[in-house]
Write the structure tokens for this entry.
Amino acid sequence: MRVQRRLLALATIPEWLLAPGTWAARPCTSGPGSFEHVLRDVRYDGPDPSKGNGLATMAAGLQTSTGTTIFKCVAQWPEGWAGWFEGGSRPVWADCVSTGAPGAPDDVVSFAVDWKTKTIYLAQTFACSDKPGSVGLATGSTTIDVACATSEGSEHCVPRAPEGGVRPTLSIQTKLRQVPSGPASACDEAYGLYHGWLVEGWLREIEMLPGAVPTAPNIIFDTGPSFRLHNVASGDVLRCASASKENSTFVGACEPLDGEGATTAEFRFDTQLNVLEIAQRWMCGRRKTLAIQGAGYMRGSCSPVQGTNRFRCTSLLVWFGTGIV
């Protein structure tokens, strides 16, 4: 098993992301700087012919080195993408949801998969206890060897076990870099920034025909998503809202939360795939623009609105990036 380690930046985080109970703070300048994560129940499922949607599913349990289950990671994308947005050069990030096990930290954890190379990437975000107002981003990756079988027309893959033996223990070590002295400018290309976003306050309201459920909806009304977007590298915070719909995809715009700033963003949310695509831009001087893009799989939960046929769909804080970390 090959393990790769990368270092990523820490940046200033707004106070609204540091509300009590939202984050489990950890030391960023005096702590160990690396964290071990054990992977359990790793499984890839190809498209289910009975559903006819062509979606592949990747799932894994994520545990601390002590063995306590903490997160459940799930992602879906069209089989042909193999974990890359539209089969291109940007991975589809997805969140790992805390199971609520006793002692589980409130980190924001996300993962991405390159199914062509069988590589799993992990990103872990948390507040810095020794540098108030800053957020840490630790990342790592591992490549797994899998054994696959086909049943009822669908492929299933799990980590390969030695002949006559048990499946190997898989782990990913994430590593954190030093806290920068101050917020970075997105227009300063010398910084070599890796850009990632925190999606907060995700809200979407839908109305379905009586008898339908969110997992198999017959939607007759949809507001599209609204949310706040925080670029962890540059510190920009934007407010995003849906503006129009193209077939099954909502299109929207994001403006700075304070109404000022040199950056804007646009998003597209595919309601069939539950994939959110973000494009952010900065005006960096005369005739010069910096642009970044990223994509993430959103798996929010929906609850009924009392007295109506509507459902309100929300999501926990989610992180996703612009590329491989």
Observations:
- The radius of gyration is 20 Å.
- The longest strand covers residues 196-208.
